Amino acid sequence: MDSERDCLRAIVKKGQDWRERDRAETILLLAAGHSVQAVAEHQGLCREAVRIRRRKWLKSGLASLPDQPRSGAPSKLTDKQRQELGKWVEGEALVLPGVADAARTRIPGCHGSNDIAHGTEATGLCVETHPLQLEKKRDPEQFEQARVEIDELIKQAQAGEIELAYVDEAGFAPQPPNRSAWSKVGETHAVVSKRSQRLNVISALLSSGRLIMPSGGKA
Question: What pTM does this model have?
Answer without folding.
Answer: 0.38
